Amino acid sequence: MRPFLIAPSILSADFARLGSDVDAVLDAGADVVHFDVMDNHYVPNLTVGPMICQALRDYGITADIDVHLMVKPVDRIIPDFAKAGASIITFHPEASEHIDRSLQVIKESGCKAGLVFNPATPLHYLDHVMDKLDVILLMSVNPGFGGQSFIPSTLDKLRQVRQRIDESGFDIRLQVDGGVKVDNIADIAKAGADMFVAGSAIFNQPDYKAVIDDMRSELAS
Ligand code: DX5
Ligand code: ZN
After folding, report:
1. Where does 60-117 have alpha helices with state H?
2. Which of 43, 96, 115, 131 is most buried, by CB atoms within 10 Å?
3. How far is the CA of 175 from the centre of ligand 2 (A)?
4. Where a divalent metal cation is bound, by residue (predicted)?
5. Tally of domains within the chain
């Protein structure tokens, strides 16, 4: 398995000083910036769009920005995020009319591409697109809000996806998002995840480095 990546979710950051808060979490040892895009249509919440992604780039953020699209429709916003500096773009397959096309639009825009599975979304959406995926993201909460509890059935789903990735031979990251904390990250890694999104667990603590260090020592255990 490749090195574990920790991706703080900006959903729990301080939006009034987003640039410096993202800078701080990267200085504290985070690997990737997880950028949650919600449209008050596909999910019952409203967050940020390409302008804010561009603002982070203009501020000087150079780390990969992992754009998690919780929007419907999917395709028309993809080029805007690519232009605004996204590195990875993931979307929920049931929000796209044409999943293969959406993946191609992401790839053609120069970004890495991934599919996101809600807790009850079946894995059959993987069937014909494994060769087009850089990331598979399993939601361990229902999307829309930070600070929810990890849904335990995600562990079994992670094991199933880990097996599919390993059998496929493709180079695909297995990401988990929702309720990831210091005290469950080791079990989540054992189930097969190698990329961990954490919002409230990191941003709700005063010392980001202490949390990220604790997560890394759990991952090494
Ligand atoms: C939920 C978002 C998550 C969220 C995770 O829809 O996709 O990225 O910010 O927050 P925590 O880590 O607090 O569960
Ligand atoms: Zn997310």
Report:
1. 78-83, 99-108
2. 115
3. 10
4. 34, 36, 68, 177
5. 1
